[in-house]
Structures are given as structure tokens and as C-alpha cells.
Amino acid sequence: MPVTTRTVEYPADGLTMVGRLALPCGTDRRPAVLIGPEGTGLNDFQRRRADALAELGYVALAFDFNGGRWFSDPEEMLAYVMPLLADPDRMREIGHAALDVLRSEPRTDPDRIAAIGYGTGGAIALELGRDGVDLRAIGTINAVTTGRPGEAARIRCPVWAGVGSEDPIMPPAQREAFTTEMQEAGVDWRLVVYGGAQHAFHHPPVDQAVLPGVGYHARHAERAWRDVVGLLDECLPVVSPA
């Protein structure tokens, strides 16, 4: 199924964000998906995720949170990302700006939107849920982050989370805190732990320095993508036009 893609620029967090919008063939309105990248930023791998979802029939926006930058230095990435992860309101601002772009696309069905994300992008997706945004599903990989007390009760959709068993950045204590938060809030949640996988296990190797505990796991990367697509198929099915 052919898709159309374009670069979209929009303001957020005092920056000009540079995202990738992918549209399925046709002219009818379709369900839509926000896609958030990991802390290093939006690269071609995540842009292709938007294309893949458009091939499945979704309007898809791979959003940006750092003004089009790609962090090749792990320390520089941490210096940017950690203050962002500690500021829920700032994450929500970034998420809402991307959501506004997606909603403004004429092909988007504004009542049928999901948010998925990896690492920092997943944390932003969760904060949209904690802010009470009407989403059909939230899916995250490597982002079992917790929010401010009580705000998870505002999540209005199923939440799926995937994490590697050997991820030192999202260790068992963090997983337990996340699942406790979801359970106490009455959220319809699922957590999949991929055995032997490290942090960012979904992302193919890059030719640059990475943090300890980061590594690609090809088999689990494929499984996690199938799980994300399954979540969307369950909560946000594409109905072909008559």
C-alpha cells in the first residue's frame, strides 16, 4: 500500500520541532498514531516506523522533542533528556504540540488516536495519558516511567509497556513502581518483559558510543514491534472504506 510522507515543522518547548508525517493511500479519514523517539532523537529508523504504520492504514506522526537534533554523545544526550524527564509539564507541552499537528491533518480521525513511544518518547506518551488526553491506546518500549501521585487515574485507555529483563535503566524496582502506579489507578495495563534484552533493544546498532546496558536484540525487536501493532489492531483497528 503506497504511502505519502512529508517533513513537518512546528513550535514546542521554545524550539522548532521537525517531525515526519506519513499518510496512507486514499482520501478518507483514518485512525492516527503519535510515535515518540528515544532520548537520542528522531532518526531514519523512527521515521520508517511512521511509514510502516501508514502502510497498515494509519496516519502516523513521528514527533520530535529536541529541535531536530541527534545526540551522538551519550553524556550530551543525558544532559538534555534528564531535566526533560523530570518535568512532566514540559513533556506534556511537547506531546500536546505534536498532537495538535496530528489532529490538524485532514486525514486524521480526531476521535481515534493512539500514542506509542520509545524511551523518552514513551514517557511523553504516558504523560499525555496522565494529562487526561482522550487516546485509544498508549504503548511504550523502555519507558516504564512513573508520574505524579494520583495522575495515572486520568489515563482513559489501555496501556501496554515492553522492557528488557537486563535493562539497567529500567530495572525491576522501576518496573514494580510503574505497575503499582497503573494498578492502583485502575488502568487496563500490560507489561511484557523480554528475556535477555537490554535498554533500547529495539533499535539496530548505531556507529557511535552508547551507554552501558544498551544493546540490540533482533528477535525481541521483531516481537516488540508485533506486540505494538497488535495493541493498535485491538484498540484502534483500521476499517477499510466501503
Automatic annotation (TrEMBL):
InterPro entries with a match to the protein in the record: AB_hydrolase_fold, Dienelactn_hydro, FrsA_esterase
SUPFAM superfamilies (UniProt xref): alpha/beta-Hydrolases
Source domain of life: Bacteria
Domain Dienelactone hydrolase: 19-234
Annotated keywords: Hydrolase
Entry GO MF terms: hydrolase activity
Similarity remark: Belongs to the AB hydrolase superfamily.
The protein's name in its UniProt record: Dienelactone hydrolase
